[in-house]
Amino acid sequence: MIPSDTTVRPVPGAWRKLTAAIALILPALAAPQALYAGTAEHPPAASVKTVDFNIAAKPLAAAINDFIAATGWQVGFPSALTQGVNSAGVVGRYTPRQALAKLLAGSGLGYRLSGSDSVILQRQAEPAGPGGQSGAATLPAMKVTADADYDAYDPYNKDYSATAAASATKTETPLMETPVNVQVIPKAVLDDQQTIQMTQALKNVAGATISIGSGGLSDDIFLRGFRSSTYFRNGFRVDSQYSSIGTRQMANVERLEVVKGPAAILYGRMEPGGMVNVVTKQALATPYYALQQQFGSFDLYRTTLDAAGPLTKGNTLLYRFNGSFESSGSFRDFVNNERTFLAPVLTWNISPRTQATLEMEYRHDNLNYDNNTWPYINGHFIDMPRSRNLMGRTPSSVEEKLIGLNWSHQFNDDWTIQQRFVADLLDTVQEWTTAASSELNPDNTLSRSRYHIPGQQATYYTTVDLTGHFNTGLFKHTLLIGGDYYRTDNLSHPYVTDLASINVYNPVQNDQPITPFTTAWSPSNNSADYFGLYAQDQIRLPYGLHLLGGLRYQNVKQWDHLAETSQPADDAVTPRVGVLWQARDWWSLYGNYIENFGVSNQWARTRSGKPLSPESAQQWEIGSKFEFFDGRFSATLAYYDITKQNVVTRDPTDMTGNFSIAAGEVRSRGPEIDIRGEVLPGWNIIATYANFDTRVTKDNSGLVGNRLYAVPRNVGSLWSTYDFQQSELHGLKVGGGVNLRDGSTDGSNNGYETAGYATVDLLAAYSWKAGRSKITAQLNVNNLLDKTYFPDAYLCGACSSRTVGTPRLFLGSVRVEF
Questions:
Q1: What is the pTM of this model?
Q2: Mean pLDDT of the chain
Q3: Can you list the domains of the chain with their CATH numbers?
């Protein structure tokens, strides 16, 4: 009983096809105007220019007059329409349409174009129709990213390319002015690909690969070759430690922002390959409701709800509610999941300059652990179907409660302060079944162990940021000064028992324990405090030059409460510098040097008993960015070189194997290409390619020269959709893509490498109007050719495992929006 106190090789032909596809796209970069003539909804890029606005909060009529003076546009409206209506103003560089959207945000007013540079204001009678093509523009009280026709949080936003992101700088900075490689996966892509799991979306980013963390129950991310158990939610760190905490729920995800390279200056300790920041959906001033039912292969059923709008007149209180319920089986035996998720958001517009947002998430998952055990005997994996699960049914449960409070205040047009607080409480009961030996028994059976690990994890986070804009002569500064505090408390008590052995060639499952549960290893009760201070200055110089510089001081303290011991504090100062030259509106060149503060090595010990220094890393990067068609099409070409030091390795003077030194070093370098956006009206493309040169450069275990675990040499993808513009086919969308990947090693000296592979995906969707509602029926087919593939493997004899690729999968959905 459980104790009662538990509360290929590379595929050169496929690579040639991908290279040819990219080659067909690149000529478009040479003559963008010839490709895009413009439509009523999407004017040609040449006709849209950005303007520096500095309009303070004031009555809307006065703000409109300032807008007319800055742009030369004509704005028609009756005086009674703006009587008693105030505007929050607009400060920054925007297109005239975007600046007008910010001026009208939260006013209940919209506009319609009456000419190329003239508009007429009108009341918003209803949300925009499909594609945002209604007579009145949809203008929720949200930030507008530069150079796009849609608001960043507009539910009808169909853009594949974003023009601004805050994750890299904590300020809403145009990507063409950011000397860091940032890639955004917007909601339109998530919808078209019917993304249910966060890691599925990362195939749209060069340099990102995935594996199966903790038996497939945690998001396992590799960025630029470095494996990370961490992602971020609106800047809040979520660390799985490769535990079965469940994958990220996607029901309330607006977009993913991927910052490539070290991001420690703003977010503290992490791996140097980069970070994935999940940006969640926010409250809206314009009512919006959506209900979606998904159904697919392996008994998948998923229902999602999205509702938003104002709660009071004048849009003082806004809300949003997202929820989902999912029940799914698997192509793997004995694996099924059930997931419930609720996420309400309430925003209080206290004044035009002061806002506060309360957000919550509740998640309850019933999951099954599957570590993909596949014995490796006599130099090869045994022959068995990809559906076979030798470890049987292993149920786990997760309950998570998150609450956050964010507020901001704008002192004047130039200075803003904002604070965020998040508390995240996690209760888990993890069940693992693993092979208990690296050898088969004489009768071809494999010994198995069952682990039962109840645990709790509490995380508390707060950050305060002061942002200011000022000029010193010809230099325009955006200054950020901030600090953050991050606290984690972890408790767990692991138990273990033996299960009956199983014949790997003729398995008969028996999941009943054959021995009493006993303590598997010492219980843990650990805490850690992370404290950081940082400062950053973004400087805009004449002639299109931009400088970025910043420093962070980080201090980390860890405790073992059971042992009543604490570790010496780890601290470091990490700088970041970057320079960017925007030679043309559509072309930027950039370079950066960044240092990283990595994971702690304090639980490893030298022979003298001293803890090891934490990992550190440095990155050099150069690149070029392109942006066409008013920001709807972009490309980034980059080359990076990252070196990570203080990697734990064996102490060569210690014959017991109990002690280590921090002498290891690994490096990752190579080129990356990211191409995404709309090349012609209705035609969207995403193309990516990355070449990973990852190596162990220093080690005392004989691994020097080896490639890093599970990292292929080449990875690429191509995805394209076409939304028919012709009236007789309007509403029909078709698309498809291919994902390619070289083989990878397990990082050892055994010489094994998985086979490379390519998979094909398809999309078909049709949308139509039914009264005031928009209905979309959609079908996605993933792995169309039913390719059998294994992205990575770990070899240890009979206890070996390899990630099993999902067979052909059909995923249908019906979504109603109004």
A1: 0.83
A2: 86
A3: 42-144 (3.55.50.30), 280-817 (2.40.170.20)
